[in-house]
Design brief:
With 115 residues, the chain is of the alpha+beta class. The protein has helices at 10-31, 106-113, and strands at residues 37-41, 49-51, 58-60, 63-67, 70-75, 87-90, 93-96. The strands form two sheets. The protein has a five-stranded antiparallel beta sheet, with helices on one face. Strands 2-3 form a two-stranded antiparallel sheet. It starts with 9 loop residues before the first helix and ends with a helix.
């Protein structure tokens, strides 16, 4: 991951979408029972948003997402038009977190309840 050169207005929308999705996830995890998933944040003076040079996706480097004891990467595809574009990945497994309406996907709920 590296910082990237931001372009306005494109990256204002990209980063806002990422932060909106992470906020929605934090709320959804608090509302859902029977899982062992959590967002762990370092001391946050800012959200350290960085771009993955391999695929262009963006994520917040100083927020950790754990399912059980495994650290999953949360990211948003760059220039996505989806309202809640957020994916969780570990090794070669990738799961879409949200449906278009902001509800958690069945696949994601099954994943976080499997630990």
């Amino acid at each position: 991951m590296r910082n990237y050169t931001r372009v306005i207005p494109r990256d204002l929308f990209n980063e806002a979408g990422l932060l909106k999705s992470l906020g929605r996830l934090a709320i959804a995890l608090g509302e859902l029972d029977g899982h062992d998933a959590r967002i762990v944040e370092d001391t946050l003076d800012e959200f350290a948003i960085a771009q993955d040079p391999a695929d262009g996706s963006i994520s917040v480097k100083n927020i950790t997402f754990l399912i059980g004891s495994e650290e999953w990467k949360l990211f948003r595809s760059l220039n996505s038009r989806e309202s809640y574009s957020l994916y969780a990945t570990l090794s070669d497994e990738e799961v879409s977190v949200f449906e278009e309406d902001g509800s958690l996907t069945d696949e994601f709920v099954e994943l976080i309840r499997s630990f």
